[in-house]
């Protein structure tokens, strides 16, 4: 579960400060996908950075899976991210020299401290299962250059799920894809969110996606408002 309560975030701007997020509150329950939309510069990326605990807000409370992140130390925050938060960015962050399968293994080395032999077998198993779940079982040994944009995004999603996060933060996963591939990625995220019971927060500019999500928030000039599906369909 992600719970953002009364979040305000400002950045330094010369001698004053610019307010990127203004008193925003939002909740994402386990097993649901909540959309976040709004024009460029409205504060979506800033809110995602707060939700993923990469940036601490000026005011407000961030609760991840029941843990209040507000007063944690930097070390504790890193631990919270490492164990609870999965990130999928617009740009693929895959390493050029590694195969799809290796991208997942590397992620787990970085994110868990489970020890040795049995853990390694479990990690390999999980990587294979996740590649299978995203439809890439046959492409496990391909490097990013040998994969299409849609396939690379699938690797990103599989990798983000390696450490069994309870929260999945996804930033415009379909922006580089055509409509059909984009729809497939959204279908995949909806299915995996249900299967893994993650609380998924999804930033998207794609209006066609929004009616399929559990609920949608719109951001304008740092202000966040809940948009009902009925309003979108009308
Ligand atoms: P969006 O993701 O909706 O495009 P952002 O969260 O990136 O919006 O930006 C919100 C506002 O905060 C914009 O006015 C932007 O210029 C400003 N902003 C974003 N990041 C920074 C930063 N690191 N330093 C200063 N201002 C920033
Ligand atoms: P997706 O629906 O995931 O985007 P595509 O239908 O575009 O996948 O790709 C299907 C097949 O084409 C895959 O076997 C993939 O390896 C191959 N392929 C797609 N794009 C490229 C590329 N840029 N370089 C090499 N192979 C590619």
TrEMBL record:
Entry-linked Pfam families: ABC_tran (PF00005)
Presence of the UniProt keyword Glycosyltransferase in the record: no
Annotated ABC transporter domain residues: 2-234
UniProt KW ATP-binding keyword: yes
Source organism per UniProt: Nocardioides pini
Keyword set, alphabetical order: ATP-binding, Nucleotide-binding, Transport
GO molecular function: ATP binding
PROSITE patterns: ABC_TRANSPORTER_1, ABC_TRANSPORTER_2
Protein name from the UniProt record: ABC transporter ATP-binding protein
Domain of life: Bacteria
